Amino acid sequence: MNLTNMYQEVILDHYKSPRGKGLKEPFQGESHHVNPTCGDEITVRVQLTDDKKKIEKISYESTGCSISQASASIMFEQVDGNSLENFDKTSGEFLAMMQSKGIFEPSEDLLGDGISMIGVAQYPARIKCALLSWMAAKDAIIRARGEK
Ligand code: ZN
Predict the structure, then answer these.
(1) Three-class secondary structure assignment of 75-94
(2) Which domain holds residue 12?
(3) How many Å apart are CA 80 and CA 16, to the nearest integer?
(4) Fewest CB atoms within 10 A around its CB: which of 20, 36, 137, 143?
(5) By the 8 A CB rule, do 134 and 89 touch?
């Protein structure tokens, strides 16, 4: 099995068995994002720890294409229970990978299964699908911190 097929398997697995799907209570920030070109939609909720340095719980509900759904599942895996500092690094790495046209050596430490999405970076129309959950999460965090 070559790398492309392996990556497709990873994406398909997240699409078929999404991790952490379903909105949870309580939450301090919520954000709903839509990708009109594809029809993907996601709502993300964030609950921060008391010191506001860590994501105590992130949850989401989403509909749409396999790329957007797999991306949300991967985002959950990489972000849930981790620090905001880690979120900034991870979302920055993911964004850089998506803007790289596929010429990039992503950090597996940061992105986990997210590295499987590198192929998506070659398809401009699908980049928004992959970024949707990360953008919604970023927005929900800003709201949870009371900055919006
Ligand atoms: Zn899509």
Answers:
(1) HHHHHCCCEHHHHHHHHHHH
(2) 3-144
(3) 20
(4) 36
(5) no
- Which CATH number belongs to the domain containing residue 130 in this structure? 3.90.1010.10
Residue whose C-alpha is closest to residue 75's, from 100, 49, 55, 51: 55
Cα–ligand 1 centroid distance for 39 (angstroms) = 6
- Into how many domains does the chain fold? 1
pLDDT tens profile 119-148: 999 999 999 999 999 999 999 999 999 976
* Residues with Cβ–ion distance below 5 A, ligand 1: 38, 40, 64-65, 68, 129
- d(Cα 86, Cα 106) in Å, to the nearest integer? 15
Q: Give the Cα separation of 105 and 45 in Å (integer).
A: 30
Query: Tens digit of pLDDT for each residue in 9-21?
Result: 999 999 999 999 9
Angle, in degrees to the nearest 10, between helices 3-16 and 66-79: 80
pLDDT tens digit sequence for 45-63: 999 999 999 999 999 999 9
